[in-house]
Amino acid sequence: MSIKAILTDIEGTTSAVSFVFDVLFPYAAKHLPDFVRQNATRADVAEQLDAVRRDSNEPQADVERVVEILLSWIAEDRKATPLKALQGMVWEQGYQAGQLKGHVYPDAVDALKRWHQAGYQLFVYSSGSIQAQKLIFGCSEAGDLTPLFSGYFDTTSGPKREAQSYRNIQQAMRVEAEDILFLSDIVEELDAAQSAGLKTCGLAREGGELEGHVTVDSFTGIEPEAF
């Protein structure tokens, strides 16, 4: 087989967009302010708060101002790495308390298990932090799916719509570009991956076509050996 590894997006691909926007984001927006206030001196939290100050060019911002900035970033769905890291910490508490369960489509669960058993290496690349990715799959409605995956990548590898990000990931995976199949519901991400030499498959769960890429409406229609 030519494909040796499968790199998948989460939002809109393995998991419903609505889970992120209707469940995770509101949960973070509600709980993040108190989490930041209560944990501002914790080393890993303080590090991210300093990153918020740097990214917003407000080095003197106090904790309340940082909370304001974070809430504004949530409202505009900004892909800011410190926000993603802090959201992940808040979600971790929610998952551990049983208030959150990760949504993964049943067809994705079945396919991921089948591919893992068949010997494909499985990786994740999402704009959500690596911690958030592990929580979705580790505390999913289908149980702990993390043993299926060999690695995770987030925006620290680069923006998802830039070809260089996929080159960085390919080097980290130590698999030839043409032996990697990338799955996403966003045509610009698929274009970027294709430019880096990866094989691509688009997910259009509501139907339609992601132009320039093989397109399916569920994981059931993906046969890695066909690429």
TrEMBL record:
Annotated GO molecular function terms are: 2,3-diketo-5-methylthiopentyl-1-phosphate enolase activity; 2-hydroxy-3-keto-5-methylthiopentenyl-1-phosphate phosphatase activity; acireductone synthase activity; magnesium ion binding
Instruction: State how the cofactor is bound.
Output: Binds 1 Mg(2+) ion per subunit.
**Enzyme Commission number:** 3.1.3.77
Q: Which domain of life is it from?
A: Bacteria
Give a yes or no for keyword Transmembrane in this entry.
Answer: no
Looking at its record, which EC class is this enzyme?
hydrolase
Q: Which InterPro entries match?
A: Enolase-ppase_E1 (IPR023943), HAD-like_sf (IPR036412), HAD-SF_hydro_IA (IPR006439), HAD_sf (IPR023214)
Keyword NAD found: no
Q: Pathway it belongs to?
A: Amino-acid biosynthesis; L-methionine biosynthesis via salvage pathway; L-methionine from S-methyl-5-thio-alpha-D-ribose 1-phosphate: step 4/6; Amino-acid biosynthesis; L-methionine biosynthesis via salvage pathway; L-methionine from S-methyl-5-thio-alpha-D-ribose 1-phosphate: step 3/6
Question: Which metal ions or organic cofactors does this protein require, according to UniProt?
Answer: Mg(2+)
What are the TM regions of this chain, as residue ranges? Answer: none
Alphabetically sorted, this entry's keywords are: Amino-acid biosynthesis, Hydrolase, Magnesium, Metal-binding, Methionine biosynthesis
Which biological process terms from the Gene Ontology are attached to this UniProt entry? Answer: L-methionine salvage from methylthioadenosine
> Which HAMAP family does this entry report, sorted A to Z?
Salvage_MtnC (MF_01681)
Q: What does this protein do?
A: Bifunctional enzyme that catalyzes the enolization of 2,3-diketo-5-methylthiopentyl-1-phosphate (DK-MTP-1-P) into the intermediate 2-hydroxy-3-keto-5-methylthiopentenyl-1-phosphate (HK-MTPenyl-1-P), which is then dephosphorylated to form the acireductone 1,2-dihydroxy-3-keto-5-methylthiopentene (DHK-MTPene).
Can you tell me which family this protein belongs to?
Answer: Belongs to the HAD-like hydrolase superfamily. MasA/MtnC family.
NCBIfam families noted in UniProt: enolase-ppase (TIGR01691), HAD-SF-IA-v1 (TIGR01549)
Subunit text: Monomer.
What protein does this entry describe? Enolase-phosphatase E1
